[in-house]
Amino acid sequence: MRSDSRRNRDRVLDAALEVLTADPDAAIEDVATAAGVTRSTVYRRFAGREQLLLAVRARLIEETRALFLDAAAREPDHRRCMAVLLPDAVRQVHQRRRLWQRLTELHALDDYRPQSAFVDWVAAGQGAGAFRDDVPTAWLMTVWMQLVFGGSLAIERYGIGIDEAAAMALDSAERAFAPRG
Questions:
Q1: Domain residues of the chain, as ranges?
Q2: How far apart are CA 85 and CA 96, in angstroms?
Q3: Chain-centroid distance, C-alpha 24
């Protein structure tokens, strides 16, 4: 892909992420305007709204992956890393909650599976005795994702402060992940 073509694609994706975070039902025209390109430029990069949403989904997943890699690099201890990562994940999902919700409604996340690096990290935590090993790794992954999304939802629906929701999600994760015995 040519460098100017890549720049336009990146500008459109950056704009789409911001525009669709504010209004998940925003028109392609709104994305084009925010990106400083024409609507036809958006359609040259993405065949339609669905393809644009899938590219936005990939960008959201990459943001989440970067959050994990940063936390894991800063804190190698699994339990302490969880204390850094989970509250950050709640905050990140809350920031883009309307977009995540819309992607869920459109079934754009049906085939999503957590990144292997994160799954491997949880499994390594189980192997090291930092996390419980009497349940499958997949179960802990499910608990993690529900706590992240549930924390974000509690902020919006029940007026719980973002720091309080992040702290409650972390407390629940620490209890759920704690080794038995």
A1: 1-46, 58-177
A2: 17
A3: 15
CB 144, CB 93: distance < 8 Å: no
Chain-wide mean pLDDT for the chain?
89
Predicted local confidence at residue 108, as pLDDT = 61
Whether residue 133 contacts residue 139, with contact meaning beta carbons closer than 8 Å, is answered with: no
What pTM was computed for the model?
Answer: 0.79
Q: Residue 39 burial (CB < 10 Å; 0-12/13-18/19+)?
A: middle
User: Given phi > 0 = left and psi -120 to 50 = alpha, else beta, which region is 26?
Assistant: beta
Tokens found for residue 56: 């936005």
- Are the CB atoms for 90 and 152 separated by under 8 Å? yes
- CATH architecture type of domain 1-46: Orthogonal Bundle (1.10)
Q: 169: exposed, middle or buried (C-beta count within 10 Å: 0-12, 13-18, 19+)?
A: buried
Which CATH number is associated with domain 58-177?
1.10.357
What token pair was written down for 26? Answer: 């925003």
CA angle 4, 5, 7 (to 5 degrees): 60
Distance CA 112, CA 108 (A): 8
Could you give the CA distance from residue 123 to residue 136 in angstroms, rounded to a whole number?
Answer: 9
Residue 6 has pLDDT above 90, yes or no: no
- Work out the pLDDT band at 85, boundaries 50, 70, 90: very high
